[in-house]
Amino acid sequence: MGQRKKKYQSGEGSKYVTRQAALRMLQLTLKNFRSLCILKGIYPREPHNRKKAQRGTPGIKILYNKKDIQFLLHEPIIWKLRDIKIFARKSSRARALRDFKALRRYIDNHPVLTLDHIVKERYPTFIDAIRDLDDCLTLCFLFSSFPSLKHVPRDQSALCRRLTVEFMHAVIVSKALRKVFVSIKGYYFQAEIKGQTVTWIVPHHFSFEPQARADVDFKIMSTFVEFYTVVLGFVNFRLYHSLNLYYPPKFPNYSDDIEKDLADEEVYVAERIAALNVSLIRTKEEDQEEEDNVVDDFPDSTDDPEKLEKIKLELERVRALKTLFQGLKFYLNREVPREPLVFIIRCFGGEVSWDRLLFVGATYEEDDKSITHQIIDRPSLSTCIPHRYYIQPQWVFDSVNARQRLPIETYMIGAILPPHLSPFVDENRDQYIPPEEKLFRDPSLQLEKPFTEDGDDDVLSDVDLGEEETLDKTEETVLDEKDKEYITSESDDEETEVKENLEREISSKEKAREEKVFEGCLGDIRIFSRTLFPPPDIRVC
């Protein structure tokens, strides 16, 4: 006779452990346990049967997979966390005893937590790291805008700023940006890196507003950032070497010697790199034309020629998109957000500059005659320079999403801007699509002109009049046939009276129909006159 199994020793009760049991197994504090779970990517689980998983205990408890906790038992970071705990105890004791010699020795031998092996464990290949880069970039861009806080050290914010700027330079060199969008949350960017789509959000540059501790847990977010900075550093290193760039990036030294003497060399280089306006030094020059030709080589034999044509067409569109702003020189006014626009313009081959007092790295002044577009966000200007377009910032974003340079008439100073549509919406969705979006997706869908060529608004076109005449004739023929059948069925004595009644009825119907047609024509004339001839509220310099 076999041994009888005890309750909760198999099945749902043996798969999960509570958080308190996990702390006892790992001999860690709750703070260190949370950090370890974030770094290793372990999260609580929801069982199918909570009563069995909790072994009959009432209430709702946090449950973890037992195999995950056993996996953490062999993690080397646990020993490092214990060393940090011992270091804190020894240093506090030396500080209390005023033994500064021992305190200095402890500080010099401070244990450092390395996460390289965790990154390699969670992302075995480079493509795996790029697939999980969305949250990494979003959080790093967010922390790069933070000041020094209690749970966010200044070094961490500076590191996030440096890594995000390096990543933007890699996107600029590879011309990998595909879609942009501006919302109340910030700037949405989407790039295509190594065949993978990466989307991230950059917050607006507003002043920092302190948050309550109950609303935002900066300690948990800081632990995520600690891991994401290591991941982003590895990704930047690999991207820079694949693009034949030095890492850390090197800045070409061709500026004035006077500016060098005013600042430290490291600060000088970091500021110029953060300007995003100067090309970085390459390890070797490469022929871009040869790379483009290699991309377009396809095998002649394929099972689906239509799919092959679509791929070729998409590659041609992407190639044209990479040189969208090539040959254009932009100048940014003070009120325009500098960094997002510089990043977008540089990704598509354009040149850009700004006021030297606004930020370092300006390459030309506002009075440069070679400037083609000046981006401004004001209702009017006191003076305008000829042979230059004064446009609003939305033109840059909409042109990138449309993959072509849009007409600038609707984006000039004081113009009523068209709706800024999101490029992340599925075009084949089975939902209502506004007419503005249809017109933006397909510019050929224009309203047909209902007027004559000579421009008289009170006269309808010959086509419309011909259609109305044919409708009247068909209605009259139907009425005549019905009238004939009705007349033949009546007696001869009532024939004259019936004819008179029918003539009155036909005349009244014709008058009512003519009035409706006239009112409808007037309504169409008013509507089309508004769409084709808007009020002149656009001021052009």
TrEMBL record:
It is found in: Nucleus, Nucleolus; Nucleus, Nucleoplasm. It comes from the Eukaryota. It holds the Pfam family BRCT_2. GO terms for cellular component: nucleoplasm; PeBoW complex; preribosome, large subunit precursor. Its main location: nucleus. Residues 466-514 are annotated as: Disordered. SMART domains: BRCT. Residues 471-487, 498-514 have a biased composition (Basic and acidic residues). Belongs to the pescadillo family. Required for maturation of ribosomal RNAs and formation of the large ribosomal subunit. This is Pescadillo homolog. The lineage of its organism: Eukaryota, Metazoa, Ecdysozoa, Arthropoda, Hexapoda.
